[in-house]
Amino acid sequence: MSRSVLGATALIAALGACSHDSAGIQEKKSGGVKMVTSALGQVLPGKKKAAENAAPQDPNALAAAALQSLQGPVIMVTFEANKAATVAAMRGQNGTMRTYQTPDQRAFVLRGGLLAGTRGFGRDLMSADTSAAGALIRAAKAGTAPRVYRYLDGDGEERPLPVSCTITPGGTVQQGPVTAQQVGEHCEGSGVSLDMSYLVAGGTILASRQWVGPGLGYVAIQQLRN
After folding, report:
1. Do residues 38 and 83 lie in contact, with contact meaning Cβ atoms separated by under 8 Å?
2. In 53-182, where does DSSP find H-type helix?
3. Which of 158, 159, 164, 221 has the smallest count of CB within 10 Å of its CB?
4. Is 22 helix (H, G, I), strand (E, B) or coil?
5. Up-side HSE of residue 208: CA atoms within 13 Å toward CB?
6. In whole angstroms, what is the distance from residue 34 CA to residue 139 CA?
7. Is 125 helix (H, G, I), strand (E, B) or coil?
8. pLDDT in tens, 114-134
9. Backbone φ/ψ region at 203: left (φ over 0), alpha (ψ -120 to 50), beta
10. b/e for 74-89, b at 16 or more Cβ within 10 A?
């Protein structure tokens, strides 16, 4: 399936409506940051200095430019903590696993629309077990599922961060010709409490708010062209 999905602002506004957490990362020792659900993107990575004085960029304009200049499947990713956004084009696929590369050679790995890894950002997500949760989310079915995130420690050793997750379907939202199902996911364990949210249509995750890890926090991911 190859198609361009709906406007960036409309999809993320609908996504925000199905998230029942407004605190960002909620570790037991501290509160988190407020969820960012407004403009998707302002700058591309690698342009940090210019971005500090730049006016916010229209997310729909960023999406349109990406679709014109990039071939194949394209996503837009926004880091919630600093509002920095980038676009990424698919550079490899193995079954349901897709690797998307940004213009500055960083990478996001998605498995069936769920974040399974990052590279080049520092404090990266090395891998994640998402199969059980992903099946429920894409089917918009209620249930519980385990997740295991993996990160490198200070000695370069991979350490697991297991959590237990509850998936809860929400209402539907109509965005032009597409009817999308809202799905929420709440995870706890290993000292963290996480809330993620998804917009699903036809078994495809159109947009999502997902946790990368303790260092990078939450990201908003939108499929611009699937």
Report:
1. no
2. 59-69, 131-139
3. 158
4. coil
5. 26
6. 29
7. coil
8. 999 999 999 999 999 999 999
9. left
10. bbbbbbbbebbbbbbb
| 147: its two tokens | 């997740």
What span, in angstroms and rounded, lies between the C-alpha atoms of 126 and 158?
8
H or E segment and range at residue 84: none
Phi-psi group of 123: left, alpha or beta (phi > 0 → left; psi -120 to 50 → alpha; rest → beta)? left
Structural tokens at position 179: 């009817």
Contacts of 92 (CB under 8 A, 6+ apart): 98, 99
Please, are residues 205 and 220 in contact by the beta-carbon 8 Å criterion? no
User: pLDDT digit string (tens) for 2-11?
Assistant: 445 555 555 6
What are the φ and ψ backbone dihedral angles of 38, each rounded to 5 degrees?
-90, -125
d(CA 203, CA 215): 30
172-212 per-position pLDDT tens digit: 998 788 999 999 999 999 999 999 999 999 999 999 999 99
pLDDT for residue 84 is more than 90:
no
| Closest by CA position to 211, among listed 10, 32, 2 | 32
Percent of the chain with pLDDT over 70: 74
